[in-house]
Design a protein that fits this description.
It is found in: Cytoplasm. The chain has 458 residues and is mostly helical. The chain folds into 3 domains: 100 residues, Fumarase C, Chain B, domain 1 (Orthogonal Bundle), CATH 1.10.275; 245 residues, Fumarase/aspartase (Central domain) (Fumarase C, Chain A, domain 2), CATH 1.20.200.10; 59 residues, Fumarase/aspartase (C-terminal domain) (Ribonucleotide Reductase Protein R1, domain 1, Orthogonal Bundle). The chain contains 19 helices and 6 strands. The strands form 3 sheets. It has a two-stranded antiparallel ribbon with strand order 1-2. A two-stranded parallel sheet has the order 3-4. Strands 5-6 form a two-stranded antiparallel ribbon. α8 links the parallel β3 and β4. The longest helix has 37 residues. It is elongated.
Length: 458
């Protein structure tokens, strides 16, 4: 007999039970569901809506059920539909009619809204922890490569010399914003909806603030319709995770490029690479490729959530059951990707000589010699034109800029003197960019220090 079956004369068809049931995926919220029910039962007793004796019996039995579930002694039933009904059915089987008092003043609509908020706030905390470990790894790599020069790119063309530390700290900033977005999202997740009922609250004198305090919420929802009928907090989290995966995907793309023979900037550890079934020489960056691919999966979860919610009238609709698999998948995918990605970059070998050699090619110091002329009094646009012609000359003669002799330099401008060689050396090109946020050693060290301060507050 269904716990809601009083109005029905027929049993639900088995195919409908299977179709309607969400226990196969919402069972993961068993802890949140039981903790929410314990807080609700405690409040019912305190407010004298049920007797204190019944309240205590319900609370203690729910704790026993939680222990039994965690020890693997409970099998959930599909015909009980969801985690809420499964737990309540087990409760009633153990303490009879007293267990039927638990649902007083509550609907599955506000109950599921409570459970998903509690579950997601726990997951946000976990994701922040694994992101913090990634951030610490980036700082470790940066510290070891403060003086490692490589070409920076625009349009995937060599542009200006920077350091590998500067490059790593660029990703540090991206993931730092991801953490900040999660913090901001947490604020909107951590609002307590219980007491909203099915849509119009209840006539029982519930103490919603007590339940919120018991469960560690920052406040309560202010509109019962809104509380049960929106999932924007889940959509927002999915958007945050999509941005995070976008950052991981971009980083993965660079790992894939850098580990190729054409770049040769890094070598991935054998433990984080795979081989080919036919080509014995291959060492493939499959971890990075999978992370890059899984970004699209998380984007799909976001689109699924937006699509489910886009045309729903207030208040609750069964469509909203589709929210869980999407947000659960987004969370699971991120929690799978970040740790293995962190270990992959932590163990990779940085080929400093190859990076420096690449920075020597591609005229990455062209801007610096233009700046050199500007400091001699030539307007920048004129200097830009002069150096453009110099680069063309170098290409035609298969030379780098710093390989030109003084007579060749002076054929482009009489203002060029012997000090030009020092000014356009790669080390000077990097060290001269010592503005806050630049690639110079002192600037990157300051960025690392700021990063450590940020992590210490997490």
């Amino acid at each position: 007999m269904k716990l809601w079956g009083g109005r029905f004369e027929k049993s639900t068809d088995k195919s409908v039970d299977d179709f309607n049931s969400s226990i196969r995926f919402d069972c993961r919220m068993y802890k949140q569901d039981i903790l929410g029910s314990i807080a609700h039962a405690k409040m019912l007793g305190k407010c004298k809506i049920i007797s204190e004796e019944d309240s205590l019996l319900i609370q203690n039995t729910l704790r026993e059920i939680l222990k039994d579930i965690e020890e693997g002694h409970v099998d959930f039933e599909i015909d009980a539909e969801d985690i809420h009904m499964n737990v309540e059915k087990i409760l009633i089987s153990r303490i009879g009619d007293v267990g039927k008092r638990l649902h007083t003043g509550r609907s599955r609509n506000d109950q599921v809204a409570l459970d998903i908020r509690m579950y997601l706030r726990d997951e946000v905390i976990e994701i922040k922890k694994i992101l913090a470990e990634l951030e610490r790894t980036l700082i470790e790599i940066a510290k070891k490569n403060i003086d490692t020069i490589l070409p920076g790119y625009t349009h995937l063309q060599r542009a200006q010399p920077i350091t590998f530390a500067h490059h790593m700290m660029a990703y540090f900033q991206m993931f730092k914003r991801d953490i900040e977005r999660l913090d901001d999202c947490y604020v909107r997740i951590n609002i307590m909806p219980l007491g909203s009922g099915a849509l119009a609250s209840t006539t029982y004198p519930l103490d919603r603030y007590m339940v919120a305090e018991e469960l560690g919420f920052d406040g309560i929802t202010e509109n019962s319709l809104d509380a049960v009928s929106d999932r924007d907090f889940a959509i927002e989290l999915s958007a945050c995770l999509s941005i995070l995966m976008m950052h991981l995907s971009r980083f993965s793309e660079e790992i894939i490029l850098w580990s190729s023979h054409e770049f040769g900037f890094i070598e991935l550890d054998d433990a984080y690479s795979t081989g080919s079934s036919i080509m014995p020489q291959k060492k493939n960056p499959d971890v990075a490729e999978l992370v890059r691919g899984k970004a699209g999966r998380v984007y799909g979860d976001l689109m699924a959530l937006l699509s489910v919610m886009k045309s729903l009238p207030l208040a609750y609709n069964k469509d909203m059951q589709e929210d869980k698999e999407a947000i659960f998948d987004a969370v699971d995918t991120v929690k799978m990707c970040v740790p293995v990605f962190t270990k992959m970059i932590k163990t990779m070998k940085v080929k400093k000589e190859n990076m420096f050699r690449a920075a020597q090619g591609g005229f990455t110091n062209a801007t610096d010699i233009a700046d050199y002329l500007v400091k001699k009094g030539i307007p920048f646009r004129n200097a830009h034109e002069i150096i453009g012609k110099m680069v063309l000359y170098c290409i035609e003669n298969n030379k780098a800029i710093d390989e030109l002799d003084m007579s060749e330099f002076k054929s482009f401008s009489e203002l060029i003197a012997e000090d030009v060689y020092e000014e356009i050396s790669l080390s000077k090109c990097v060290s001269g960019r010592n503005l806050p946020g630049g690639p110079a050693k002192e600037s990157v060290m300051a960025s690392i220090e700021n990063g450590l301060k940020f992590l210490s507050k997490l």
